[in-house]
Amino acid sequence: MKHLVLAAGLLGATAAYADTPELIVYTYDSFVSDWGPGPAVEKAFEATCGCDLKLVGAGDGAGLLARVKLEGARSDADVVLGLDTNLTAAAKATGLFADHSVSADYALPFAWEDATFAPYDWGYFAFVHKAGMDAPANFAELAESDLKIVIQDPRSSTPGLGLLMWVKTAYGDKAPEIWDGLADNVLTVTKGWSEAYGLFLEGEADMVLSYTTSPAYHLIAEEDDSKAAAVFDEGHYMHVEVAGKLATSDQPELAEQFLAFMVSDAFQSIIPTTNWMYPAVTPADGLPKGFETLVAPEKSLLLSEDEAAALRDVALDEWLTALSR
Amino acid sequence: MADCAQPLRSRWGLGVAAVVAALILGALAAVVWRAEVGRGLGFADWAAIRFTVMQAVLSAVVSVVLAVPVARALARRRFPGRRFLIALMGAPFILPVIVAILGILAVFGRSGWLSDLLGLFGFEPVQIYGLHGVVLAHVFFNLPLATRLILQGWQEIPAERFRLAAQINADSRAMWQLLEAPMLRQVVPGALAVVFAICLSSFAVALTLGGGPRATTIELAIYQAFRFDFDLGRAAMLSGVQLLLTGGAALVALRVATGEGFGAGLDRPVRRWDGRGSFALVADAICIIGAAVFLLLPLSAIVIAGLPGLVSMGASVWWAAVYSTLIAGVSTLVLLAVALPMAVAVALGRGGLVELSGLLGLAVSPLVIGTGLFILIYPVADPFALALPVTAVVNALMSLPFALRILIPRVREVLARYGRLSLSLDMRGGVFLRRVLLPRLRPQIGFAAGLAAALSMGDLGVIALFADSETATLPLQIYRLMGAYRMEAASGGALLLLCLSMGAFYILDRGGRRHAET
Q1: What's the pLDDT at B76?
Q2: Which pLDDT value is given to residue B513?
Q3: Mutation test of the interface with chain B: which of A6, A11, A14, A217, choosing the one with the most B Cβ atoms within 10 A?
Q4: Same domain for A269 and A305?
Q5: How many domains does chain A have?
Q6: Span of A238-252, A280-294, B76-90, B192-206 with lowest mean pLDDT
């Protein structure tokens, strides 16, 4: 009956949660949806915190940051969950975030040292294709092939920006040449991940920019093993998703408690089959069956947040120049 | 004063127009107010502006040029299912962009039906990505709207005129010169301006089918300014450019649209005696069948893709459908409350500014309106609690330009025809409204309401900024399903949306046409 309560709230009535403290977490849209981790996370946290957890969806990672900037110090949010390492420098620059004291035995391919943001999941960007296809082994081979790829626009999408960083990290000053070679393979560029993945599933393109964990969804949720991710030998750029608490939070203890909960087993075991990413801390029962079939890149690429912030505009210009010709 | 000799006054309309303008320009001003000094418009922004204008001009011209013969054919012919076809043709316009794109690609894409067919004869698959793909998609969206707007022009020619033309034995060509061409000179500029304005704010269509960053539009540049650079000043500046372009197009359209109108008739059903030759018959058949095939194939692809997903959608999608219907209902009421007085004011000769403020809803980017309202509402109220009303109001503003185009000609005609008579009977204000204007305006009100309801149902624009996790509209829920890999359920949601929008449109449009000529 939650919906009716909500509808009543819209008509001017106030919610009757007076005694229960409320923790407001801003996150991206797919996290809060019925098919994402949101509902299970809310239930698990509310069972321990004696509070009301309110998850608020605000577009994607970049939209989330824009929202927090827009609201500034007056924001109602206590925690922001869903930024990635390409955005954390800008997030810190706002001065809105406070340091956390979370520590955990992270299952990341590198040591995590960030006083402000704590990771909750991660994955590798990768090109997903139909299983059985002879996939290229790196960007150079992809550029030489006739394969058609769909990518996302870095100006409007987090994975799109991730791909820019991937090519930039792997090739440095040679990135423009790689993009020149790839230009005729790019079938089209979409606003966001959903559109691109939709086009791929419709059979428009041979490969789509997604994650190495994408085939796990098809395998586990649909019992369909027809999708695979291509392993590139120059390494794969990582997408590390993080959360932090706001300095202006009126529930600082509860926010800290949420961040600690976020790296606990209860939260982490929800992630693999709802967010379809690797959990930041391996759950006690290990990864769900099916994850062992995923390809594991030999080399992980990740820019520090300052490098990522410094390279962002350069990489965008190079990309625009190569693809606008 | 024109007002003195009329049974209605323009005060209300002027007031409402001022509120509309204040709301939209206020949102824009709020964005400017929050802006810090940004980097201004760069080379890439000018390229985006050029591309935007080019594709919008092309899309508008192609849509309207194709719509004229289709509307003419529909105006001349009566056949079973005609009414249904006209209603169905309204469907593409209200679909969420991604759904429509997938429908188009199912037909024209690299692995679409057309490519498969060509493949049987050994041809290469169709190349849809590029400027022509953008125009194709925009024609798919806007041909039906342009057809309806022009068809309405035909229907506003009084039946007596056709009777008279038939009595002097006017053939198709003479009919064209006497009645149809003058009517088109009045209607076509407005239709061009509306389609141009719609395509001006295109974003996902242009990007996805344009094939890459070459196809960057102003709207994407605004998105970039917000999300990528958080440069509110640039977003506002780009929005200003969009506003100028739409306003300019509207002014040109208003200036070009000249002509006298066709005077009074007795509201008799139109009968046509022209176009009986076999050549005309074949030509009309080609137009109607061509348009139907072009529009219905992608729609059937959406239906086919959606059927299996209908069962796997889950309760939240059905709840979202309830919200969307609720928003569409409120939005339609708001629209009528705003559009009717404005249409009266325009018809009373207070044209320019009122009509321009009506266009603002289309001219300012939804992202900017949404953000501006967010900035304005945030200090005084909880934006989430206001998500539904704000969405309903903004959706109403978006359909305002269409409603005005639909209502104004008829209001003008009714005032011209019955104004003096009513005054001599001392029928003014509310009485005139109830007894004379509204009954005669019913088909137009129905069409405008149907369009507003359907547009609101399919709109994603503002709700995305305001929605919390539980109050999501159907389009937003479809995107969420796609974001969670659940393409099949998303297709089911798209089909549900298609049915709801079509249903709302059909019921309202049909309701308005009760007793009227079909």
Answers
A1: 83
A2: 67
A3: A6
A4: no
A5: 2
A6: B76-90
| Residue of A76, A189, A319 with shortest CB distance to B207 | A189
In this structure, the answer to whether residues B4 and B68 fall within a common structural domain is: no
Q: What is the CATH number of the domain that holds B226?
A: 1.10.3720.10
**CA contacts within 13 A on the Cβ side of A18:** 2
**CATH number of residue A244's parent domain:** 3.40.190.10
Instruction: Give the one of A54, A156, A204 whose C-beta lies nearest to B227's C-beta.
Output: A156
Summary count for chain B: helices (H), strands (E): 22, 0
Which ipTM was obtained for this model?
0.86
Average pLDDT over residues B379-384: 78
Q: Min CA distance, A247 vs chain B (Å)?
A: 19
Residue B425 has pLDDT above 70, yes or no: yes
Q: CA of B173 to nearest chain A CA: how many angstroms apart?
A: 46
Q: Are residues B172 and B301 in the same domain?
A: yes
A249 lies in which domain range?
2-122+239-290
| Angle at CA of residue B105, ends A222 and B94, nearest 5° | 95
Q: How far apart (Å, rounded) are the C-alpha atoms in residues B478 and B483?
A: 9
Q: Tell me which residue range forms the domain holding B419.
A: 1-34+313-518
Same domain for A275 and A152, yes or no, is: no
Query: Could you tell me which chain A residue has the CA closest to the CA of B202?
Result: A191
Which residue of chain B comes nearest to A323, CA vs CA? B213
d(CA A147, CA B173): 54
* A261 and A212, same domain (yes or no): no
Q: How many CB pairs under 8 A join A and B?
A: 163
pLDDT of A3 strictly over 60:
no
Q: Tens of pLDDT along A226-237?
A: 999 999 999 999
Instruction: Give the phi and the psi of residue A323 in degrees, each rounded to 5.
Output: -90, -10
Q: Cβ contacts (< 8 Å) between B389 and chain A: which residues? A: 10
